[in-house]
Structure prediction request, 317 residues.
Amino acid sequence: MKRVARAGSAIGVLVCMVIVTLPASGGAQTAGGELGPDYVRASAGDLGAGGFPGGGLPARDPSWESPYTWARVNDSRYCVVFAGAWPPEIATHITPRPNGSVNGNPIPLAGLPGDQPIAWLLDDLSLLPPDARVIGPLVWDLGAPISGGGDLTIVPWCPTPGSAPPWEAPTAAEIWEQTPLPRRAIGASPPGTREFPGIARLATFFWSDARPPTTASVSLRGFDVNVVARPVAYAWSFGDGSTQVVGDPPSAIVPYSRKGDFVVTLYVVWEARAHLTYAPWGVSLGDIDLGTVTLPERLPYHVAEIRAVLRTTPSGR
Prediction:
């Protein structure tokens, strides 16, 4: 009697509904560098939409307008540092540094770019002693309030090559790079580990917690900068080419079409405003809209596949 093997299929399905909140993967997530396990700084590459591969994010460029209109007047004198006392024969060509003023009040000049407390002014460089050093030419920068109120801001100083004027506000990128922003832990169900993988063609649920606005105070080039930042949008990239832009709190459901190892990335879009005060003068230079940065948090995610198991019995049944 011919034995015919009859195949009966059995599908062993183990869907792990274990809910686990996993920390974001270690290491710096942005070129700005990680401040700690819970905080990161943005980099220039994170400005706007950052590295998000999809579209639809509310990315915005920064904007700022100085509250002053600035004009520069060149002086004929030079800031000079002497190694010791200057020669008596050039005393009539040397004068002290002039004072500046903001709204009629004197301002300290020490610490301005290219300026030093021991610098003097020399009107003829041909008289420069061998042991003296020229810092740079003296200039007068005049700032008129755009609002029309208040007096001129008068700043005499000696710029060196590459030095920034003291009223030149830090850029948005500079401020973002110094502002700590909280990181996000990513939750997944199934967890996507080797022991409890995601299942191809079945739904996987990803989520993260909502965060309130954050504040920070940083100091940049003599400016006191007070920042208020808040998350305004979220987006997911699932590592298989698909993306989703979502609201707050950020969550998403995705079925992977195939097995494999993927990197799930949650992109958090932050917007911020910063108030600028030039500390040596105690003068407010107003607010700057920092625009947006988009910070990534990444999570490795393993997806397995359910397979049919072919069984045969000795009796063929």
